[in-house]
Write a structure and sequence with these properties.
single chain; 302 residues; mainly alpha; globular
């Protein structure tokens, strides 16, 4: 497999933006439907805290399938959100979600050794964090420890869901391939993560601060920050798809896949190029001329 350069990390983000622009309203509607569904599940006692994390791989594949539809020029409907549930791989996706939950519990649970369980209580909804609690506890160190402990699991889970659904791998085989695919592209993922820190954290803070000065904090949050968060999160899901394509190639049914349809955008560009006057010969025309000369019969010998 060819090496993945660090610059690919930023290219994934750009490609995610390009994919989102194909159907921005449909992608945003799909994400809002997902959020409302998660809010409804959250109402369920006990299970409401567990199911959202267990179902992450299943809903991730819904967004992945939406990306394929956008590439094909097909309309993305809210029904795509249930595509993971309809897949034969659904039981495996549930098992993968259980491993998501286990890894998160272990990482956050071990962080209790530093802050006495404050981060655990905050994540489980037992307490609400206030400036005084944050200042008096080692919450920051606990969060950093939990992040460091969860990082290998995140690498193992990153491509696991699409590998299970599209490549029909078993859960642990998909985890194995995902871990080493991410490890092979470490520099690209570092740049990818830094890019999303800038776009997903600093950009909303700057925009909300500017708009709050003009409109007031509550109005700026409602009119600017919430829509911006929805758009950026949806674009991030689109960029997830691009990281998979870079590592494992187009999935079945996507443009460029074996036996799959041609990329409509590529076909359009080709038609425009060929319609130009004085259409130039391809770059290998010299090679074609050399080949034609070699194919000529040798002159007769006297």
């Amino acid at each position: 497999m060819p090496p993945i350069l660090a610059s690919a990390g930023w290219q994934w983000i750009k490609d995610g933006f390009a994919l989102f622009r194909k159907q921005p309203a449909e992608f945003s509607t799909l994400f809002l439907a997902y959020m409302f569904l998660m809010l409804g599940i959250g109402i369920i006692p006990v299970l409401g805290q567990i199911l959202p994390l267990v179902l992450v791989p299943t809903f991730t594949m819904a967004f992945m399938q939406a990306c394929i539809r956008a590439q094909l020029g097909e309309r993305i409907s809210p029904g795509v959100l249930l595509s993971g549930f309809r897949s034969p791989a659904f039981p495996k996706l549930l098992r993968l979600g259980g491993l998501y939950l286990l890894a998160a519990v272990v990482a956050v649970g071990l962080s209790s050794m530093i802050d006495g369980g404050i981060f655990w209580q905050a994540m489980s909804g037992q307490v609400e964090l206030d400036p005084e609690t944050i200042q008096e506890s080692d919450l920051t160190r606990a969060m950093l420890l939990a992040l460091a402990l969860y990082l290998p699991a995140a690498m193992a889970f990153w491509h696991a869901a699409p590998l299970i659904m599209w490549q029909r791998m078993g859960v642990f085989k998909a985890i194995f391939y995902s871990f080493f695919a991410v490890r092979r592209a470490t520099k690209a993922f570092v740049l990818y993560g830094l890019g999303w820190v800038v776009l997903g954290v600093f950009l909303p803070v700057i925009v909300s601060g500017f708009m709050s000065a003009l409109l007031g904090r509550n109005l700026a949050t409602m009119l600017v920050l919430l829509p911006l968060s929805v758009v950026l999160t949806t674009i991030m899901y689109c960029s997830f798809y691009m990281t998979y394509v870079q590592a494992f190639g187009p999935p079945p049914g996507a443009p460029g896949s074996p036996g799959g349809p041609k990329d409509p955008e590529e076909e359009r560009r080709k038609q425009v190029y060929e319609s130009l006057p004085d259409f130039p010969r391809p770059e290998n025309s010299q090679a074609d001329a050399d080949k034609a000369r070699d194919d000529e019969p040798p002159p007769p010998r006297n």
